[in-house]
Amino acid sequence: MPTPTPAALARCIAKVAQALAAPSLQAEAATALSRLVARDDWLPAAYAQPHADYYQQYLLHADPAGCFSIVSFVWGPGQATPIHDHGVWGIVGQLRGAEASQRFAADGHAPPTPIGAPHILRPGDIDVIGPDVGDVHQVSNAHAGVSVSIHLYGTDIGRHQRHVYPATGGRKPFISGYVNGPDTPPFSA
Ligand SMILES: [Fe+2]
């Protein structure tokens, strides 16, 4: 029997779907995500399980038309992403713990160079990423325990072709996928 969609997640999905029809898409979507991460009482534990070696991405919901997706990122102590891009707009909301986002300048040839200091996200904080505002970053757990953030992207991000940027320069194609198993099916709207 499918897991019922948590009410807070259902409200966020409905608001984002509604916002997609409006010109103020990102602002409305950011508000919906901000409300979702304002309280840490709705994410089922199965979607917040860390892995000993890798950060985890659980798909919580994918819009059937592929217009957006909502993902929980779960970080064990010391875990970090490679330097990567997205190719679409995205909004990150911190639910639990803390994470650091370091932006980079990367042209796909020269080694990526950091821009400014890392942005530390704490519970309730949101950050915007994407081609219009800075699309290349590296995210790491900034908390001694497990951290969880909820990400909203303007596509089905786990199936979207994008890039990682090795420290030595160049870039490589990257499709992140999801870690959902039989006990963590994505939620419907
Ligand atoms: Fe990212």
TL;DR?
The chain is an alpha+beta fold and 189 residues long.
Question: Can you describe what's shown?
Answer:
It is a single chain. By secondary structure, this protein is α+β, with helices and mostly antiparallel strands. Helix content is 14%, strand content 31%. The chain has one domain (7-174): Sandwich (Jelly Rolls), CATH 2.60.120. The protein has helices spanning 7-19, 25-37; strands at 56-62, 69-75, 90-96, 99-105, 113-121, 126-129, 137-141, 147-153, 162-164, 172-174. Helix 1 (7-19) packs antiparallel against helix 2. The model has no long low-confidence stretch (mean pLDDT 92). The chain binds fe (ii) ion (FE2). Fe (ii) ion is lined by residues 84, 86, 129, 137, 139. Residues 84, 86, 129, 137, 139 line the site of fe (ii) ion.
Computed Rg: 16 Å
Tell me the structural class.
alpha+beta
Give the CATH architecture: Sandwich
Overall number of strands: 10
Describe the global form: globular
How would you spell out the order of helices and strands? HHEEEEEEEEEE
- What name does the CATH topology carry? Jelly Rolls
Strand content is 25-35%
Q: Mean pLDDT across all residues, rounded? A: 92
Bound molecules: fe (ii) ion
- Enumerate the spans where pLDDT stays under 50 for 5 or more consecutive residues: none
How many helices? 2
How far apart, in Å, are the first and last alpha carbons? 16 Å
- Percent helix, as a range, is 10-25%
CATH class: Mainly Beta
Largest sheet: 5 strands, antiparallel
The CATH homologous superfamily corresponds to Jelly Rolls
Tell me the count of domains: 1
